[in-house]
Amino acid sequence: MDATPTHALADRLDAALPQMQCRRCGHAGCRPYAEAIAAGDAINRCPPGGDAVIATLAALTARPPVALDPAHGRHAPLTVARIDEARCIGCTLCREACPVDAIVGAGKRMHTVVAALCSGCDLCVAPCPVDCIDIVPAHRAWGSADAGEARVRFDARARRLATAAEDAGAPGDAAPARADPERAGRQQAVAAALVRARARRAARVPMPATAAAPPPPPAKP
């Protein structure tokens, strides 16, 4: 393991970050941001952490505290994602986007968010093709235990994805040959489900009333 001072500082910085893995800092997660700070990046790009985390990062790096950079968002109470089960088409895109494995559900089946695990990162919202995910108040605080558990899940997910990528690209492995048809089939299923969802949505939206045609003129005697 790398035992350089920069690596050791990154460990301490990572431990101070909230582990919400929201990417608002401009990095792919809290650990990459911690490494960037250790290498000289700004300490004020973590909206979930707010002033408290900035103060800790300042102390660890021996820099003066600065205000949160508004270009990266604002500090706000914890939120969580909520899936409208009636509109969910089971496309799995939100599940794949979740950095802390807080969404469960099989393909073509309704998905749900485990609220106790959700970090409120909102990375699941954009991939949803039917806009069935809302971000709502969590009505609780995010504590150090949440951060620790989220880091474990984030790291486990990263290892799982790395293993899948290695398996898909292994020489002589038939996985790549299978992967493309499977992916194409899933994309077709998502596209078909999206068409059905849009049709259902259109059927629920009332058509605007059209102006009534003027009555015909009275017949001349």
Q: What would your notes on this structure say?
A:
The chain has 221 residues and is mainly alpha-helical. The chain has 2 domains: 68 residues, 3-methyladenine DNA Glycosylase II, Chain A, domain 3 (Orthogonal Bundle), CATH 1.10.15; 101 residues, Alpha-Beta Plaits, CATH 3.30.70.20. 42% of the residues lie in helices and 6% in strands. It is built from 6 helices and 4 strands, in the order H-H-H-E-H-E-E-E-H-H. It has a two-stranded antiparallel sheet with strand order 1-4. Helix 1 runs antiparallel to helix 3. It is globular, with a radius of gyration of 24 Å. The N and C termini lie far apart (104 Å).
Q: What are the main properties of this structure?
A:
42% helix; globular; 3-methyladenine DNA Glycosylase II, Chain A, domain 3; mainly alpha; 2 domains
